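A quick word before the example. In earlier lectures we treated sequence and structure as two separate objects. From today on, think of them as two lines of the same record. Here is aromatase written that way.
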Amino acid sequence: MVLPSHHQVVLPHPLHPYFLLPCCLLFFLASRPTVTIFLNLLHHLSILAASITVKDELFYGFLRPWLGQSLLLSNGEDWSRRRRLLTPAFHFDILKNYVKIFNHSTDIMHSKWRRLVAEGQSRQDMFSHISLMTLDSLLRCTFSYNSNCQESSSEYVAAIFELSTLVIERRGCILHHWDWLYWRSPEGQRFKQACSVVHRFTKTVVQERRAQLLHQGEPERHTDTTGGEEKRKRVADFIDLLLVSKDEEGHGLTDEEIKAEADTFMFAGHDTTASGISWVLYNLSQHQDYQDRCRTEVNDLLQDRKTEDLDWSDLSSLPFTTMCIKESLRLHSPVSAVTRRYTKDITVPGGRVIPQGSICLVSIYGTHHNPEIWPDPDVYNPMRFDPENSKDRSSHAFIPFSSGPRNCIGQKFAMAEMRVVVALTLRRFRLTPGGVEVRRLPQLVLRAEGGLWLTTDKPHTCSSLSQMDIKLTGTCCFSQV
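And the structure line, produced from the sequence above:
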């Protein structure tokens, strides 16, 4: 059976139980098939070649003036070549170097929290703090650039925030979907100006680094120690790795291609990770027993050490903390859905045919709240990810980083950063709940309406908060452990 090109099925109301059923793929637009497909078809659709499953322009096209023809937005052979060239940049030997940066950026954020408490500013929006921290971290990992953005304003960082906001606003304004109208609007002019700032910064770094590479040779791809002393040679960052990458024919990426990938790494890497970290801290603030178990795990790992810094090998020694992070990613996935378009007719089990050109929305939220796979799906229960409880679960039941050939290339980077930030935060602070239930706000990433607030208190005084403090809406408080 082929779905006719104008076939439309009325979608269930958002509160209808079927809306929360597993992994729906929703085909939408009035001129496209609009139908709901469930989990048993996800595996079949996820393993399709990247040349068949491509990014649609309905939303991703809004990002193209900013991110160019990058891995996120490219298709076909161009995408395959870029994926091959970029994959070595996310090898664990490279990621090891970034853990030191994660530690350092987290230390800066925690120092700021302590200072703000001492100054009497006890209520802070953690999304804003953690977003700055992840941007700071990414700027160091991508460009070896110390922006000091956690402590002072930065034109580049402000431009990234501006672009992210404008993309969300454009998506919600139907008239602005037309380029002719959008680029003549005040919002379109602001978008162009912010793009100019970001592109100018990235272009300058790429050109300077290429010249440096020609004169000084390749930097080290990973740190090394000899006799307990770390080598002093500069270690390769993301730009370096892109500059030296070569395909099978010995061709590398052009400066324009490198700029597009660096801009994409900054866009895709900071907000999603910040959302993930913020919701983990929120969920653990609601569950003191899990929080205490994580803290004990971290303290046991770091006992008798001279510093609190975590290294790459430590991350595998945080199994329960990792389970808590994964359960938070299930319950509050940073990205609620992804879309795909098919370049040919696809026959699925049951003899149905998905017509060429159909746009498919994969509901990550629906997948992660399927009661048939996740009993009591709205309950935060990290034990779902205990190896014994996970062994028979479909690999497509948990897809915070999407699935298939176009899954997130930076997922190991993100998981490493989340483990470092969560572990150090729990070692240094206690999180306690306060106020009414926080309301989800799905945008480019999942946020909370009005911010996800933590009320910070002086060390050792969290238990003495007044009833007035405890009733603050949508907040949590944390005190030094």
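Notice the following. Residues 81 and 248 are 9 Å apart (CA to CA). We will return to this example when we discuss secondary structure assignment.
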